[in-house]
Design a protein that fits this description.
- This protein is an alpha/beta fold.
- The chain has one domain (about 30-285): Alpha/Beta hydrolase fold, catalytic domain (Rossmann fold).
- The chain contains 10 helices and 10 strands.
- It has helices at about 1-30, 70, 75-80, 100-125, 140-150, 190-195, 200-205, 230, 235-250, 265-285; strands at about 35-40, 40-45, 55-60, 85-90, 130-135, 155-160, 170-175, 180, 210-215, 255-260.
- It has an 8-stranded mixed beta sheet with strand order 1-2-4-3-5-6-9-10, sandwiched between helices.
- Helix 4 crosses helix 5 (about 140-150).
- The relative contact order is 0.12.
Length: about 300
């Protein structure tokens, strides 16, 4: 009799565990997409994010005079499709033509962006992947490629659209036949002075870059003169110079110049950027990891990205 009671109790416990699991799965599937607004931070969490854990974060950086919540709207369908969390801060940039103010903003805003990224597990209750995707336009393109330069171990891929200047991943370069040191924001010679760590070239070489610029976005008056000796005078010249520098370092970097396109994010540029970012994830899905995930004890192994042109 006691044995029969034990068997019945065991069966009941097993059935109860199945029912609890079914309820849990249903609750995950029934989650609604939502957004978080907290001061200068906007976060979008798609309905399927919990099922994608550890979740991929996509950072979206607006240009001069913009704001994160508005700028990232064109990315939300991709976030829904892929289960990505979108992190879109709003930063009040100073004069982008003043190199000293550009540096001042970057060494203030980009560590703040890293803090925002690391706060997402606590804000959402979701585990997130260690390396982020980055997308930005104009001054925002400056921000995302510099984030990758400052924190390459936290960066998977970068889509940089129409930046007015770039920080070269170099400590020195030849200028007019002479070797010249490149401090921030032109290069990385003195990075430790501002960030407390040197440039991590090995980690930087694992990042995949896509650079985009409009073919008619070529007015020298729209760019700061301090970068002329290192990159050229226009956004088109500078996009080419930056991409070539990356390629010379053995980094996977592609440049697309869009004919008859000015300083805008056209629908084609946006869609090409999204396809690039989705391609990065798809090609690395089976071996994705890149170290610790945020909010988890351990996830996967170090990632060496190998990508072909999208």
């Amino acid at each position: 009799m006691a044995r029969r009671a034990t068997i019945v109790l065991t069966i009941a416990l097993v059935l109860a565990s199945f029912l609890l699991a079914a309820v849990s799965v249903h609750s995950v599937q029934a989650s609604d997409a939502y957004s978080i607004r907290d001061g200068d931070l906007y976060v979008y969490v798609p309905s399927n994010a919990a099922q994608q854990q550890p979740v991929q974060i996509l950072v979206a950086m607006h240009g001069m005079g913009g704001d994160g919540a508005t700028f990232c709207q064109g990315l939300l369908a991709a976030a829904d499709r892929n289960g990505w969390i979108v992190v879109a801060p709003t930063f009040k940039y100073q004069d982008y033509k003043n190199a000293d103010l550009v540096l001042q903003d970057d060494v203030s805003f980009l560590p703040r962006l890293l803090e925002m990224i690391d706060s997402i597990p606590g804000r959402t209750g979701l585990q997130t992947r260690q390396k982020v995707l980055l997308y930005g336009h104009s001054r925002g393109a400056q921000a995302v490629h510099r984030f990758a330069t400052y924190y390459p171990e936290r960066t998977l891929a970068v889509a940089a659209l129409s930046a007015g200047s770039y920080t070269l991943p170099l400590q020195t370069m030849m200028v007019n036949g002479e070797s010249q040191s490149l401090p921030l924001p032109f290069g990385v010679a003195n990075m430790s002075r501002y960030l407390g760590h040197d440039f991590n070239a090995d980690a930087f070489k694992q990042i995949v870059f896509r650079v985009e610029v409009g073919g008619t976005d070529a007015n020298p008056a729209d760019t700061p003169r301090a970068w002329d000796p290192y990159l050229g005078t226009t956004r088109v010249e500078r996009a080419r110079a930056y991409t070539k520098t990356l390629q010379n370092m053995g980094i996977q970097a592609d440049l697309t110049v869009y004919p008859d396109t000015d300083h805008i994010v056209s629908s084609v540029m946006l869609n090409d950027s999204i396809a690039f970012l989705e391609g990065i994830i798809a090609r690395n899905a089976k071996r994705y990891g890149s170290g610790l995930s945020r909010g988890a004890l351990y996830y996967g192994n170090s990632l060496t990205t190998v990508a072909t042109k999208p």
